Amino acid sequence: MRILVTGGAGYIGSVVTARLVEEGHRVTVLDDLSTGHADAVHPGARLVRGTVRDRAAEVLAEGHDAVVHFAARSVVSESVARPDRYWDGNVGTSLALLEAMRATGTGRLVFSSTAAVYGEPETVPITEDAPIRPTNPYGATKAAVDAALTEHARLHGTAAVSLRYFNVAGADRGRGERHTVETHLIPTVLSVASGGRASVSVFGDDYPTPDGTCVRDYIHVADLARAHLLALEHARPGGHEILNLGNGAGFSVQRVLDVCREVTGHPIPAVSAARRPGDPAVLVASAERAARVLGWRPERPDLHDIVADAWAFARTAAPSVV
């Protein structure tokens, strides 16, 4: 297939792009490089620099079979401080992409959504039938795009799949996390071991969990990339499939710290801090529907392997972006 990957110079997008190229697809990456890195784009893919609003219609007019849509803002705290940026950058951008797809007859889309649309769940693991109750603008904008995809599939016959997941980590094919401002736990902890910071903060140690720290679902980026390729094959005209992805069993913040210490051989000092408002004790997604529909299950669910791959990448990345 000829595939457009929006945000393909970012962490997950670059890994998916590499997998697509290796599978023999013709891939164009559209990225404005505001948070992505040109050197992360597989050399077998074509890179077009620009925004979805400015360039998507032009690129899709060349003839594409499908789109994998990663381009979005994704920092929860920023979404709370500047919700306008997120409604414009996530929802507005996605609506512009859908219109470009309609105008050019591009009929297949895989969307990088988020399990943050569920907010604070009533039960865990979280299934796709759980109520949509996002607790921040980031999650709300992703839920809005999912709703738009359902309507677009109904009205225009688009074949769409949304993949919802929580925390992605690890590295694959020499590609890992390189955020200028890092907010994810594993690379933040590893940055202490690599000398990027003095300590890591643990927000709350009195949760109703076995060790008192929050429990979160983690998925290896290689497993996530494989799910996107399977979703491309599965998408059916006129349908919008929504699938959760995850390990099915979470890891506590303390467990992540312990494993990072084991992998790096560094003591990694941790400082106890107050709970963050709205942080649930446990967030774990059920991936049973993805197993039934896509035949997908995580092949690299072990936290030690996830951290080891992330650490191997961190030691080769520039210090300023670890």
Task: Give descriptors for this structure.
322 residues; alpha/beta; 7-stranded parallel sheet; 3-stranded mixed sheet; 17% strand; globular; disordered C terminus
- Average per-residue pLDDT, rounded, comes to 94
Helix share bin: 25-40%
Q: Which structural class matches the secondary elements? A: alpha/beta
> Can you summarize the main beta sheet?
7 strands, parallel
- Spatial shape: globular
Strand order of the largest sheet: 3-2-1-4-5-6-11
Rg from C-alpha positions? 19 Å
Q: How many angstroms does the end-to-end distance come to?
A: 34 Å
Give the topology string: H per helix, E per strand.
EHEEHEHHEHEEHEEEHEEHEEHH
Poorly predicted runs: 318-322
Number of contiguous helices: 10
Number of strands: 14
Percent in strands = 15-25%
Q: What would your notes on this structure say?
A:
The protein is of the alpha/beta class and 322 residues long. It is 38% helix and 17% strand. It contains ten helices and 14 strands. The strands form four sheets. Strands 3-2-1-4-5-6-11 form a seven-stranded parallel β-sheet, with helices on both faces. Strands 12-9-14 form a three-stranded mixed β-sheet. Helix 5 (137-156) links the parallel strand 5 (108-112) and strand 6 (159-164). The longest helix has 22 residues, at 83-104. It is globular. It starts with a strand and ends in an 8-residue tail after the last helix.
